Inverse folding.
């Protein structure tokens, strides 16, 4: 118990202080929770979106460069007409994008994790290096069924499409999730959520992308056919080493088509997939270490 309390104190102090977080954590990779007045970090709870939905008049459209304080702005709308929101922190030239909620109902932990990161980035000065800006898209799929953790219905948008089968890398209309058939959409990028992300990435030209899923407790490099980006493997190993997740050259548990990070590899963007170990627990403390490791690599 004493060691856990000490480790928790180190994590809090390091996050508030910035990137000392990655350097000072011990080899004990156990998940810890910590409490501050600003950050909801109980990994056993999922947060709910406080962002307005479409039609409230409280959101604005902005370019990737115009928001640097975490103010929410719209990058598109879902098939069901809900806003897809982003938050950008920092003013550096190098942009890193963090994406959660691709299968929001299936893995609500991914949205919770990034909402915790948003709160931390707002309240902890120095967390984002001067040469970097970080854009967080916590909920790419606001239409997915709630209360469907681990269930197929939680993976789909309002059109019944699995968004992680809708990107233009080995795209197939009739796709699969494990052994279950799923829709990849009528064409690559047929879904407004995938279109919104594609268009944002074209504007932002990120130097790295981290996409969150569940559940395997692993980090996976990306490739589209024979197109790979060397830094993807580097980021995979760094993130895995910082968090204690396993590192993998590719996701090969079953065949996939239309995958987001593989499409990014085809575009020359270093991208990794992080699969949390739980559908519902955000594992914020260890993933803060992983994000810090990625950002340290980017500023080299």
């Amino acid at each position: 118990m004493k060691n856990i309390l000490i480790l928790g104190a180190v994590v809090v102090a390091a996050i508030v202080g910035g990137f000392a977080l990655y350097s000072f954590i011990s080899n004990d990779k156990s998940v810890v929770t910590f409490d501050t007045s600003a950050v909801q970090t109980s990994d056993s709870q999922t947060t709910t979106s406080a962002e307005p939905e479409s039609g409230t008049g409280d959101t604005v459209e902005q370019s990737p460069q115009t928001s640097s304080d975490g103010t929410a702005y719209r990058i598109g709308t879902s098939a069901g007409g809900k806003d897809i929101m982003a938050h950008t922190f920092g003013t550096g030239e190098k942009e890193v994008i963090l994406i959660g909620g691709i299968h929001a109902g299936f893995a609500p932990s991914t949205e919770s994790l990034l909402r915790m990161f948003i709160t931390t980035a707002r309240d902890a000065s120095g967390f984002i290096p001067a040469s970097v800006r970080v854009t967080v898209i916590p909920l790419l799929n606001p239409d997915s069924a709630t209360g469907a953790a681990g269930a197929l219905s939680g993976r789909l948008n309002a059109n019944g499409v699995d968004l992680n089968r809708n990107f233009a890398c080995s795209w197939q209309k009739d796709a699969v999730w494990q052994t279950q058939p799923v829709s990849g959409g009528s064409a690559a990028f047929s879904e407004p959520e995938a279109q919104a992300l594609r268009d944002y990435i074209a504007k932002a030209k990120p130097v790295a992308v981290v996409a969150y899923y569940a559940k395997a407790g692993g980090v996976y490099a990306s490739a589209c056919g024979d197109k790979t980006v060397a830094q993807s493997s580097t980021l995979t190993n760094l993130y895995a080493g910082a968090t204690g997740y396993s590192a993998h050259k590719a996701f090969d548990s079953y065949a996939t088509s239309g995958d987001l990070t593989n499409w990014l590899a085809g575009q020359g963007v270093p991208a990794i997939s992080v699969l949390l170990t739980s559908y519902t627990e955000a594992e914020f403390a260890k993933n803060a270490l992983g994000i810090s490791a990625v950002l340290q690599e980017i500023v080299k």
